[in-house]
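Appendix B, record 7
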Amino acid sequence: MKLKILPPTLREKKRYIGIKLYSKEALTKEEIYNTLWYNTINLYGEIEASKINLWIINSKEIRNPDHFQYNMIIKCQRGYEEKMMTALASIYRNRTNRIVVHTVGTSGTIKSLNKKYNLL
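Structure tokens (predicted):
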């Protein structure tokens, strides 16, 4: 028996946020994801953080002589974009490594986010 896929009208809407993350040391995707997730939980609590539905879609590492830069696309639930951007703005550290997160913009599709802001 094959399961049916939900029609688009019943699916939950999502939004994509483009960010640039700057760090002095190299970070793995898991470290970045854990930093984003734990910071969101500390700021809003577990229930509200689960409603945001944070997920990293794409990431690209750009090496500079002074620092590491990561261009990333993050997925979140529609209606929670402002809360997600607030959580991103409050991030300043991963263990002893200082990091800075800049929100570039939001969009309803990955294609239009790349087209507008040239992230990946």
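Remarks on this record: The longest strand covers residues 97-107. The chain has one domain: 14-117.
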